[in-house]
Amino acid sequence: GMIGLETAFPLAIEHLVRTEMLAISALVEKMCVNPAKILGINAGSLSEGSDADIVIADIDAEVEITKDFFESKSSNSPFIGSRLHGKVETVIKNGKIIVEPQPEDEQS
Q: N or C: lower Cβ tally within 10 Å for the chain?
């Protein structure tokens, strides 16, 4: 199989949000809110008592999909060479930062 999760967000931004087929709020619902409901987990919202899981993304930032783009060991993707919009900058899981911008990613 091919890797898909790591490109799901930029692909959705590029082909759904930027083409106005889907509002960003609807994308958040489909990628965060609904999966949490289906799995019955306390996530998918920023409401009091929910898990402190937050993704901060720049939906206008361009990303190039290369073999180095992937964090996983696999890089089998038909999207290698694509330029897309939607860059995940920071990930907070259970109140702890687990992904943060690298120095070369930060603007001066």
A: C
